[in-house]
Specification:
With 500 residues, the chain is mostly helical. Helix content is 80%, strand content 0%.
Length: 500
Amino acid sequence: MTTETPPPALDDRRWKALGVCLTAGFISLLDVSIVNVALPSMERGLGASEATQSWVVSGYALAFGLALAPAGRLGDLRGRRQALLFGLGVFTAASVGCGLAAGPTWLVVFRLVQGAAAGVVAPQTSGLIQQMFQGAERARAFGFHGSVVAVSTAVGPLAGGLLIQAFGTDDGWRWVFFVNVPIGVAALVAGHRLVPRLPVPSDRREKFDPVGVLLLGAGVLALLLPLVQEQQWQGRAKWVLLPVGALLLGAFWMWERHRGRLGEAPLVDLELFSLRSFTLGALISLTFFGGLTTIFFVLSLFLQNSAGYSPLAAGVTILPFAAASAAGAAVGGRLVTRHGRSLVVIGLSGVVLGLLGVVSAVQLVPGGGVGWAMALPLVVAGLGAGLTVSPNTTLTLTLVPVGRAGAAGGVMQTGQRIGSAVGVAVVGAVYFAHLAQHGRATTALQVGLLTAVAIILVALVLAVADLRERRARPGRDLLSATLRRGVGESGADEKAGRGA
């Protein structure tokens, strides 16, 4: 794996270009959660069946996850600016199609296109940050990126509730998609002016890998499909797809090794996983998002179905988490170069503590006042989430060569999507099973949140183990040394850092 030295700071436009990237990332991640509160409106206004509603949600997640890795590699090979603008343009057009859909089938089709386009956008953002910034500025840029990830995920229910209330239950769901259009058009215009044309690899061996795309796509699909459809597909036959997915991913691994032996560039450079910081950071990200995403899932169900909250009120209840996570991510981006992995440990501990506080609040303040009782614990959990996402992204990608930044970002975010799907399936199954057996929504929510905490604790254990290992060998800790120096990668650094 060769290493490229990133170009010097381009000009002051790069911070404005970052704003374009983050805007594109915001609307693509917002659409993961904003539609949840609009599903009843779709049922009334469009006649969307339960199966259609399921595909509006899960189809987006599937297409998003399938597009990430190949889109990241495409950006590495053909230019991240071009890939970003292409993905943003398709996403905006698909949003128009979703809003104008004349029937349920068209809505699902445009939603799949929209998800795939979001998967094209996402890895270009992290790749462009890697390419445009270095050292402490890169950490700060990833701090802003972490704020966007946290806020877009948490603010979706609030935005959806506001739109439904403003435009009514029959047509309000259409505006959940139309809201993307002016933002997308403005970002496209600004992107053409501000996002720089950065160099791409000129090596002729750097060719796209269609066999790798098919194997990876089929493997990820086989893993995600039974998870995102867990509530809709009855019976146990669906779980047969999980070992099939594992076999396909094993075949993908062998195929990529074969291409490497032939001297051809793989879709996913497997030597990325020889970087300890990348492998560990990707695992922390996978398990953390496996717990984080489920928080909003079970809370939204509980607040609307059991506590009697409207979609807007449910969104407002979750708002403290969104605000605190944005602040935490901005702070984390500034402190990560000084504190490294210890910041992730603090963040994950805050998330666990905050969620345990939510569990206690639900027990102590039942009924309509539970939203106020949750506010402070949600602030604590939000601050922890912000201190986790941004620093962990910086630490995961610090030693990744700039020429592989898009592919690395795609792999990392594919893990996030798989983690989210697994978490929603597991926590959802626990929540609904307890509700069906005992009929107590409060207890079902508590059990569901404790399951999410257990998943996040796995990420915390990984982070603590890494922190202890680095403190035990301070002289060989290349990752911390690179962060402290605040410089870009070098070939010598990477060669020395196979185990970093």
